[in-house]
């Protein structure tokens, strides 16, 4: 299993940061590996919603399908792949107060190919 953790301090309120990161249509703006990401289920975005992401991974273009497993404004969300080259989970935690917060993203995979 591979796990990658990244954290960044953001000079914005927690609720604003969650609103931006919690909308998959914004991911192409903050994740340089993402070519496109779209909501594939009806709004509102919530636990159970589904997504499709085209991205560059290990030098090639791949597509992942995701399900939002946890969606808890303004503190975080978790998405898990339902198809793609490997089983992957992205967990975003947002902590902080008033005018600033810290975002921690944890990506983990079990390095086992999924069946398409």
Name the descriptors.
10% helix; single chain; 116 residues; 7-stranded antiparallel sheet; 2 helices; Alpha-D-Glucose-1,6-Bisphosphate, Chain A, domain 4; 7 strands; mainly beta
Describe the structure.
It comes from Microbacterium memoriense. Pfam families: Polyketide_cyc2. This is SRPBCC family protein. By secondary structure, the protein is mainly β. The chain has one domain (2-109): 2-Layer Sandwich (Alpha-D-Glucose-1,6-Bisphosphate, Chain A, domain 4), CATH 3.30.530. Helices cover 10% and strands 55% of the residues. The chain contains 2 helices and 7 strands, in the order βααββββββ. It has helices spanning 14-21, 27-30; strands spanning 2-10, 34-39, 50-57, 60-72, 76-83, 88-97, 100-109. The protein has a 7-stranded antiparallel sheet. β3 (50-57) and β4 (60-72) form a beta hairpin. The longest helix has 8 residues, at 14-21. The protein is globular and about 40 Å long. It starts with a strand and ends in a 7-residue tail after the last strand.
Summary of the model, kept short:
By secondary structure, the protein is mainly beta. It contains two helices and seven strands.
Q: What value does the Rg take, in angstroms? A: 14 Å
Rounded mean pLDDT is 91
- Specify the overall morphology: globular
CATH architecture descriptor text: 2-Layer Sandwich
- Report, as a whole number of angstroms, the end-to-end distance: 20 Å
CATH superfamily: START domain
Order of helices and strands: EHHEEEEEE
What's the total number of strands? 7
Pfam family, one: Polyketide_cyc2
Protein name: SRPBCC family protein
Organism: Microbacterium memoriense
InterPro entries: Polyketide_cyclase/dehydratase, START-like_dom_sf
């Amino acid at each position: 299993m591979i796990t990658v953790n990244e954290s960044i301090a953001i000079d914005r309120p927690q609720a604003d940061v969650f609103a931006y990161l919690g909308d998959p249509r914004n991911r192409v703006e903050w994740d340089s590996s993402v070519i496109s990401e779209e909501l594939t289920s009806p709004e509102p975005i919530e636990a159970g919603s589904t997504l499709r992401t085209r991205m560059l991974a290990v030098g090639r273009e791949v597509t992942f399908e995701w399900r939002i497993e946890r969606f808890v404004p303004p503190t975080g969300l978790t998405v898990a792949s339902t198809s793609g080259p490997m089983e992957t989970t992205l967990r975003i935690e947002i902590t902080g107060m008033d005018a600033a917060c810290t975002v921690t993203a944890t990506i983990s995979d079990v390095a086992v190919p999924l069946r398409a």
